[in-house]
Amino acid sequence: MNTSAGQTYLKTRTSVMARRLIDDATLEAMLQEPLPRLEGEFGLAGISERGLSEAELNRHIERGLIHSLMQELSILLRPLGGTARDILVYWSRKFELLNLKALIRGKLNHLPYDQIRESLHSLPPLISLPHETLLRTENVPELLRQLEQTPYEAIARQARRVYEEKNESFSLDATIDHRYYTGLLRHARRCDAADQAPLLKLIGSLIDRQNLPWLLRYRLNYALSPSETYYLLIPSGRHLHTDLLKQLVNLQEMARILEALPEPLNSRLSGLRQIMEVEQALTDDLNRQARKCLQFSPSAVTRSLAYMMLREMDLRRVFAIIQGRVLALDPQLIRQAADLGREVPGV
Amino acid sequence: MFRPLPMKQVLIQLLADDLPLAALTLAELGMFSPGGGDNFSEQFPDVPGTRYRELYHQARTRLQKIESHITLGPLRPLAHTRVIGEQELATTNAWLGEVWERCSSFEEHFRRLTDEEHMLEQLEQTLDNFAALNFDLSRLRGERLFLDLHIGMLPSVNVPKLREAIALADYLLFNYMENTDHTHVIILGPKGAREQELRSVLDTAGFHALEIPPELDDEPQRIQGDLRQRREALASERAARRQAMQTCGDELRAQLEQSRDRLIMAEPFVAMGDAARNRGQLGIISGWIPERELKRTESALHRRLDGPFRITATTPPRTNHRDVPTYLPVNWLTRAFSTLVKQYGVPRYGEINPTPIFAVSFIAMFGMMFGDAGHGGVIILAAWLGRKRLKSFTPFAICAGLSTSLFGLLYGSLFGYEHLFQAVWIPPLSDPLYMLRMALFWGIGFMVLMSLLYIHNQLVSGEISHALFATNGVVSVTLYLSVLTGIYRFVNTGQFGLLPAGLSLAALLALLAFKLIETQAPPGERMLVAGIETFETLTGYISNTLSFLRVAAFSLNHVALAIAVFTLADMMEGTGHWLMVIGGNLFILILEGAIVTIQALRLEYYEGFSRFFSGDGQEFKPLTLSLQGVK
User: With contacts defined as CB-CB under 8 Å, which chain B residues touch A225?
Assistant: First the structure.
């Protein structure tokens, strides 16, 4: 992605695709739109008429979301090559990691084949694991042995160590997430010099959104020690850099942690009492940052990544609306799930 | 031979209880391909055997995994077949589960042994490192009053993060040795309340502690001896495990082969999928059978089924030909050619079977390009000697060798020598232009034949307009032949000729008109697309014809290579001369053999197949008694 023609093409492509991003007014309108039309618009035609259970419905909707994203990703990938292509493909691996977690959790809890299979998302071969082979394994060690034969070998080895030491899914999930975000940073650092700085800024915001809720949960909910909490966090956030994280893990109350944050996080987050609220505020922050990148970033691959992040957030909200409406939930609840009508600080 | 076998769409109505036995019987015959079950989903909504299928798949996977540890004997035809009930399948599956459990524990144990060997290697490196230090090693061992000290190793990628993390608990990390993916470290800090905190982080970071043996200071040889013993112990444990596995395999092999036979007999019902349906006690099986096999199928079902049944066979209408599987019968001679045809694609039902045409033209072109009586003989001999490896490709290679020898006789060439006997036809280098002309005539004949096949295929599919006006239709062939005739006349008489010119123009206009009608686009774009496509039809024919010049070019190339070899050989004397001749001939055989094969295939695929068949047909895949049918 180093030719100026390629950069221009991709920037134009993302600008055109950016028109698909959905604003709050459109989401509000979706609450009133006839359900069949809404389903059809997002490739879920007839889902409300199939009499699916709540779990099946969730799976179908989630599959629809990932399918839409993968289609758009494949369009953006076409003109890309080398490290720029690698980072977008790596970002999309997050969905396969959901599958991996579902597989490990299923095997740990001895769930039947069908139940685990139903919870897996079908993904393009580029990032997909050999699901059938993994599903047919009969326990976690066998699953990990099989995984060691795939591109997820490094994650599998780390996961094996954690499984053998701790034998529970929380540590495995944390390890998998940690490896994923560290890998994302590594990929960004391998990109061309022109792409590197904007990419690291955007990924830094994404990491901040992960790190702070993790920090709060590890310290306050799971009561992990400061050193273990720090070990499980990802270095190189945008606002939450290494030295600050070292200070934060030594604090023992949420209010004090939030007070110790630098600007602009401090003014946005101080006073919040729930980790969910913090997570939401950080998502808004990420959303703002990604929109800025999409419009102004000099790097085409950063714009593409920003678009994919925004599109994912958008589609999650849309599917929350569809899900709520199919299940005939209370409109207020749907609005809450789709994050509508909430005052966004700083906007 | 030139057409796929006529197929019948069959519906077998029978008792639901007889479905597994009917599936087994059909698999034994090997002439029934299940399909089209969806068409009956309203009348017969249930697809039986859900649990059966699940059991089968699990058992099959287990057997496959076991086979990677225990080698079973080759598959033998089953002497007696019977229906495998769900209970029997469940028992087989459970037993295979137990066997796999044993194999899996072996596998896990081998993995652990590998880890231990790796650890031992790391320990040896560490001890070598410490032994070289001028330092009292006893200080690194045992409990200390104020100091908490750990020596060990961890994945190198985790070191920087761990160093920072444990610094928060007032610990320090020093690395003293690194290898490919692990780093050896010493961690130390104050004894006290944070020891437990440290252990938890170390576990998460994948830290492995290394023990420093007390004898390291004063008796290093004893340590080395101990380590050697441990390594030997690991090796003998590995060997013992391997032996145990072998014994386990020998014990279980017969039973495993019986289980495999049971799965083979269970597979046909599983492979039926939704082609076997039922509503209460009534069941159906839908699929395809070659017309000539109908009676044999009916009588086999009569023999095996106790309950009543009825077979209805219908001829698929032309409009449904795309859904009909294509069955191209093969024999020992045509099998390899058929495989190469399928590399391109499977013809649609009703289309010409390209295998015989491919076989004849490929072999002919191979000989034309490679013609040498001696080399042909070597190819035949090599094919015969390597027949076990070549399997179905043996006749293919022998035919290629025969063709090479035949053209060798026509060209008067034996191992590159052009003067040992009189050419029956012509030595290629004596008149290269004549050879090129011959190649062009071959190409023209080949192209016309391919276009005629296209016209036939379109007529069979009912696409009359395409048969007449499409790129390879009647009008295009007329255009091609009239242009060629005009050019031929022009070269010989200096005039294109009125008739060829008139025909060319009329054909060109007809093609343009057809493209204009067929293209769906706004008027401007339609004109542009139709114009370009018409022009492309003409240039395509010409360039494809010129492509056949390579047939003559390679026959000339063969002689040129031989001349080069003999020139080099003539520079030497005695043994050197003959070594050069033999080596050079081997070089020509291998290099030219490979190139000529690729070029002939290329001409077949691009200049031939792409003209007359789309290759998007469905291959007839009958139910058989094997473990291949279910994915």
Answer: 169, 194, 197, 200-201
